[in-house]
């Protein structure tokens, strides 16, 4: 039996009485996938499977491992299918489907790995853009706060910062309503309001 939980002990349990009836009465060996410390002790396809499973959260490391490991490249369809299921990877599942449609084995897997990697890159770019946008707004909030404490009016602040007056008024209202909120928190609230609008 194999526990595919993301944390130790979080996988599916055998507490269901119907399932227990199907299991023969002899010793069962359990493998907690998140606790295997030495996958190199395994001499079967389980070794590359476990090593890939351990790299499931880092797409770059995952792809590099497959490119550099002959045993991982030679894993059978069932192992790849199981890996796709436990990692919830649509890209791996698509590659298996392509391979089963008579595509070249290595070509389909390379394409899937490339897609897997590119998804991670695009995800990283999106996160970076969001962080940059938030930091920019945080700087504007800091400037608005500073100018407001020096008794500048909303219209003057908008002119000096080359911002829309309604945006400056929103910032001032958020600051007035939440005096203990820092600039980053006010910027987050502004972003949330933009997403809703």
Topology:
Elements: E1 2-3, H1 17-22, E2 31-32, H2 46-54, H3 59-68, H4 70-73, H5 77-87, H6 90-100, H7 105-149, H8 154-161, H9 165-177, H10 183-196
Notes on the structure:
Strand 1, helix 1 and strand 2 form a beta-alpha-beta unit. The relative contact order is 0.06. The chain starts with a strand and ends with a helix. 66% of the residues lie in helices and 2% in strands. By secondary structure, the chain is mostly helical. It has a domain of 71 residues. A two-stranded parallel sheet has the order 1-2.
How many runs of DSSP E, i.e. beta strands?
2
Largest sheet data: 2 strands, parallel
Question: What share of residues is helical?
Answer: 55-70%
Structural class: mainly alpha
Radius of gyration: 26 Å
- Kindly report the oligomeric state of this protein: single chain
Series of H and E elements: EHEHHHHHHHHH
Question: What best-fitting shape do the alpha-carbon axes yield?
Answer: elongated
Explain briefly what this protein structure is.
The protein is 66% helix and 2% strand. With 197 residues, it is an all-alpha fold. It has a domain at 126-196.
List keywords for this structure.
197 residues
